[in-house]
Batch of 4 targets.
Target 1
Amino acid sequence: MCSVRRALMLWLVPLFLLVGIASAAISYWTYSRMVGAFLDDQMEELGQSLAQQTRSIAVPKQDADRVHKWGSYVVQVFDRDGAVQTTSWPQLRLPRLPSPGFHDIAFEGRDWRVFVAAPTAAGGTVQVIQSGAFRSQLYFERAGAALLPVLALLPLSLFVLWGIARMMSHALQDIGRQAARQDEHNIAELPLERVPQEIRPFVLSFNSLLGRLREAFAAQRRFMQDAAHELRTPITAIGLQLENLRGDVCNGEAAQRFAQLEAGVRRAQRLVDQMLKMSRQEATAGDNAAPVDLQAQLRESMNTLIALADQRNIDLGLVGPEKPASSMMLRCAPGDLRSLLDNLIENALRYTPEGGVVDVRLLEEHGKPAIEIVDTGPGIPSEILPRVFDRFFRVPGGGAGGSGLGLSIARSAAERCGLKLTLRNRQDRSGLIARVEAAQPAGISKGASSPRAEGSLAHAGLRER
């Protein structure tokens, strides 16, 4: 019972075959009785009519082919003493049977059906004989002719049964595929158009569960967004007050504690900003995908973060492909791709020490686009690399004031874009490599580069390597 189609076939196919065999047996039994009764009536009428004749009986001669193949009757006439007076086939020397009526006998290795008429007025006896093999063959032929439509319809019925079971199985599989496509960003009720009546209550219950789940996710997003908005104003006010107090803080231990307080406020501000970014990203997760120029998007993200790179005195550069005049198009939601690149580049800039280098490499390998963001930071211990994508997880001793949400946001955006995000430590020196690659080469197309993107890169003062 692990498969509806298999269960239907395993139960109904033997049932169909059993019905076919039973129909064949019943048909043979019915026609054997009907045809046998008809032949017996003919034999009886012939025997009685010959027995009532008062003059000598003359019968037509038969041969073996007519007797065995065509079922011709063999007539034997005996006198009072049991001697054969006349016979239509002398080769058959069947003796006179003692009692009138029908008899089934075996003689000389063959089966025969014999009718013995009542004795004549002269005391003689008439026997009418027919081949038993012919009668059996006639039964089979007549039963087969009647059963032929049933036998012809049986394979057709099995084929129709298999098709119906296949359609039902595909309908259930479609329901499963539609249910598997649901995620926290796109929860919709399953359609009921092609759902079998027996499965409809289950699908309705599942749709009700999906509705409650959708409301729970919406409430979670609203809570995160409301909490971030409510926290943003007081934290900003605290930051402004700290700016005003900076000049009044004396050197020494008070200045050290004041710096620690500023670092905590900055971290809280960054956490609130990341929470707002995450809530906006989840709210727009269902946006339709569109072709995005990967090169132009990279330059735009780098232009946005050039101020942070200048503030920390970090050399931020773009390493393009061998043919810089070509562009790569990737089909995804533009907001998700922008969020992915912003978070990865910003993460590299914040964890790279001042005076370091962050290279953004745009590659094309085996017809698939790839991006590598290489920094000269401290890297991440290999034993905690699998955990850095967890929400609110921060590398111990990182000291960059991170919120623990950036990489989680980046991975979610990469998954929605159909991209693969991996992290690994550099082998040549300390540092980290964040690699983003497309799963399919179909999303790449080449064309002319974007003049606007190149202009913005030059305007921002970035160095293209």
Target 2
Amino acid sequence: MPKKPFFTSAFIAWLVFVSYTSLTSFSGVDTSSFSFNIPNVDKIVHFVFYFNTAILGVFFIWEHKKWDISLTKALMLMFCFAVIYGIIIEVLQYSYTVDREGDVLDGLANSFGGFIGVLTCKYIFSRKGFMQWRDKQI
């Protein structure tokens, strides 16, 4: 276990935040002061949520260097996690919430955000990027 598990804590906190905001009703909350006249802003929010999920997830795996996993496997694992997690959240919204709805387009926005997130991490850990996936000694 790392001495300071920053990304582990951030990843878990982010998943709790996404789950809570996705499954909680905000019908009694006055959101008029936060309303924007941007078409499909909901899809942008879904994209950003899962973009961050993928990035924090890859850094969570990176933080645990004792895990013997290649960057490619970590990226594939986190992309699959983001897609499955997004589908589960959409199904829960459809099945268990009163005023929230599951939406296929939300699921696609989730998946696209996860995909772009892992591509971003691929660049970050590439030769052109500014971080290394593994130490040179390994």
Target 3
Amino acid sequence: MKSKNLYIKSWQLLSVIAVSILPVHSQEIIDHAYVRASYDFSYKTNPAQTEYAKTDLMYLDIGERVSKFYSRYEQTRDSIKKEGIDKSLSAYEIVDNMQKYVKGTKTVVYHIVEDDKIYVTDNLMKYYTYEEPRSIPIWRIDTEQKEIGGYLCQKSTGTYLGREWTAFFTPEIPISFGPWKLWGLPGLILEAEDKDGLFLFQLTGLEQQEHPIPIIYTVETGRGESFSEVSKKEFQRLEKLFYQDGLEYIRIHIHVEGGTIYQTEEQKSRYQKLKQKGGVPYIPLEPW
């Protein structure tokens, strides 16, 4: 960002900043999906909520060696952004066009069997990537069964990455993948919910692909700049700061010259109240 003085008129401006610094991505085909599972991803932003606050439409593209889990909503918004950039629209025009579409989860999860690793990319106004071992959850398979989407499913419970999960998988589809980072059962996971009732993945569709879909791996911008590679621990620290103190995150990590973000007195007051409440309401899938 080149501007020395950044004057925040509204939170919409943060989206304009994001568009101006995030160009179209370079992409690499790493596998082809022969199955696509669709899930509703419902989640809460505050533990006190009695109902799920938001729902995203997620795709799980499954290949021979790779699975990719990502938001269809965010994929649509990225397409609108790319189209706007191709048409040389201003950042404000692009943001205005994108606001017509539902925001989605920005996290993309790749399971790469050959590497025995999980790779994650995420966007906190700039793109980060980290990797972690593809450690298998310790599942306890129950005798309880139920039907989901026409498939007979078996119940399983396990603790994984800081949360207790109940998952239903179907041996009728002998694919050891599932939504998000969940995997390791003798069948595709069609439904999963954490013990605290904060997150729920529910299958909404399953399609065998007549013509396999390319699985695109993206860790580089169109300008040849790699996403910022960090450790998982460092990413979690950045994510926490992003939600709890967004302006401080921008000042430090988005390289505002002089380190100063100018606000009106009213905006300062609103910002301080938000900070006192703990920042933007958000619960991470993996506890910080």
Target 4
Amino acid sequence: MKRVLVANRGEIAVRVMRTCRELGLETVAVHSSADADSMHVRMADRAVCIGPPPSAQSYLVAPALVAAALGTGADAIHPGYGFLSENADFARLCADQGVTFIGPSPEAIDLMGNKAAARQVAAQLEVPTVPGSKTPVRSCADALAAAKTVGYPVLLKASAGGGGRGMRVVQGESEMDAAWQDASREALAAFGDATLYVERRLSGVRHIEIQLLGDGGEGAVSLGHRDCSIQRRRQKLLEESPGPALSAALLQGMSDAALRIARHLRYSGAGTIEFVVTTEPAAFYFIEMNTRIQVEHPVTEMLTGVDIVAEQIRVANGEPMELTAGWDAPRSHAIECRINAESPTHGFRPSPGRIARWQPPGGPGVRVDSHCREGYVVQPFYDSMIAKVVVCAPDRDSAIRRMRRALSEFVVEGPDTTISFHLSLLSDPEFGAGKGHTTWVEDHFLARFQAGRGRI
């Protein structure tokens, strides 16, 4: 492997290119016409415009991406996250054209990309799953029958989906028809597949994920866990590791379960098994596998010193993983805050526009992953995340203090950002006490934040 095309944009494209450069690999950037002046385009050895915005005319056009790789002599394609990163047909197209796809096999992507099928795999391997339908439900009548067995409230979830799209909460039988119509329509639009499944809605749960690396055979290792419970509308806002008040036995159980799945799949590269965790009683349940690198992977990198992108590339290139054994529990604490160009005091309204001033934080234990700079225009066509601020410190309290210090140094003028939201969150006593769960922000914190209008 000598040249890698990065089939993505924004901070993840920049992050992948940095590792490629350290490994002595040339890089190719692809970009929409709106992204012609982006940082990943400036960083790359070569760049190819693949169409106009929106993504459906550029970053989601698989033939254009492969043609760009072939035309620039790229040996491999790294898909990043989002876009086509979990598209098995894209991985097959790469293979058909002799281009290495830096990720798992198309078969693994297909199997785990269907959430209902993934639940079946987990159950076969004796990994606990949230009570729900054993097979996809293809009609409202099927969903009603499954919900009657599972018990309300339930979640309708897209079999092919993720990120909260194609998902609806159903409190009772009278709500099912409207929820079915909405969820199936959204799933079809987002993923090209309207198939749904039913799952019991568990309240007050934590969202915990296990970071895996696999060598494509029997070799798989766990790099520990991340707590992704701080969410709004099922979108992650802050991630940390280790998660507060999680027992060693519970974490070991999740790690063992995740490794059983990875070894069964003969998984190749980086992947993440996601669980929900209940506290009374303490138990974990498999929800899905993400067959790609995660947005929050820097949390694990800060704790372990492992370059996960480098491991992805090594495995895809037929080289052995540098990490061949499991990883011990962390002796420090890492936190990541996602900084979005949104107005948190106005319902998180998107705030695209030109950045007039950009001064990111630094200092001990601080990492900033971003594609922004002064003069950069935050586009309205794409995800609003403009930076990830990650800190590492000896313990959780000192990590919280370090993150507050870092965010207080972060100057962004032009677009509104969620920096004030995170500063308020990090100062909240309930968050400090580790009481967060997947609906805590909406159930408890947002009212306090809005009452203070973002003041810290």
